[in-house]
């Protein structure tokens, strides 16, 4: 977390406040006087889910934009200006940068909405559901974007009522992108901006994570299946 704060301080001059949520009791110290922006810390008494944590953080947001960012994100350049420029299109609600892993490979964070047929292809044919677009396109309009780095216009985040807290973990990002499209908003990936994601996937073999994943998938299908939006670009 401290490394990410250092990077944000080094590369971005537009940040006014960073809200750090400690979901478990941690000894990380984030001194305010070290950074050119305010560091506002939230210490949960009990662990919350992804959606609840970010909705809680949004309650302390007083800027025009609200960024959801995992602590395992790394940046090597100014990450926000190009993304904010995308909101000149007033129908845009959610923007994400191109996300690469630590080896410089592009991660498949822009995807099609999941369907039973798509999941079958993933299991049987090893197709991951990544959104296909012309490699020369800079602005891409996928169905949904991974939640490790998402920039929202604050008014539209509020209009969407934030993340659905009935999901504990997984599919909150799919759900909010789908609802954005249903509201007539756009969800876009801007390849002008790049960030790096140092994903640690060892926890994915844990049964509790598998349970959360399957429960969230079922919840998503019950809530949305056969009611996907008609995307207008």
Major β-sheet annotation = 6 strands, mixed
Task: Determine the mean pLDDT.
Answer: 90
CATH class of one domain: Alpha Beta
The DSSP helix count reads 7
Overall outline = globular
What share of the residues lie within helices? 25-40%
Helix-strand makeup class: alpha+beta
Secondary structure tally: strands: 10
Cα Rg: 17 Å
Please write the string of helix (H) and strand (E) elements: HEEHEEHEEHEEEHHEH
Distance between the termini: 36 Å
Strand content: 15-25%
User: What is the name of the CATH architecture of one domain?
Assistant: Alpha-Beta Complex
* Oligomerization state: single chain
In CATH terms, the superfamily of one domain is Spore Coat Polysaccharide Biosynthesis Protein SpsA, Chain A
Summarize the structure.
This protein is of the alpha+beta class and 233 residues long. The protein has helices at residues 2-11, 50-58, 81-85, 116-125, 154-159, 172-182, 207-224, and strands at residues 17-22, 38-43, 65-69, 73-74, 92-101, 110-111, 139-140, 144-145, 149-153, 186-197.
Chart the SSEs and their pairings.
Layout: H1 2-11, E1 17-22, E2 38-43, H2 50-58, E3 65-69, E4 73-74, H3 81-85, E5 92-101, E6 110-111, H4 116-125, E7 139-140, E8 144-145, E9 149-153, H5 154-159, H6 172-182, E10 186-197, H7 207-224
Structure description:
By secondary structure, the chain is an alpha+beta fold. The protein has a domain of 159 residues: Alpha-Beta Complex (Spore Coat Polysaccharide Biosynthesis Protein SpsA, Chain A). The strands form 3 sheets. Strands 3, 4, 5, 7, 9 and 10 form a 6-stranded mixed sheet that branches. It has a two-stranded parallel ribbon with strand order 1-2. The chain is globular, with a radius of gyration of 17 Å. It starts with a helix and ends in a 9-residue tail after the last helix. The relative contact order is 0.18. The model has no long low-confidence stretch (mean pLDDT 90).
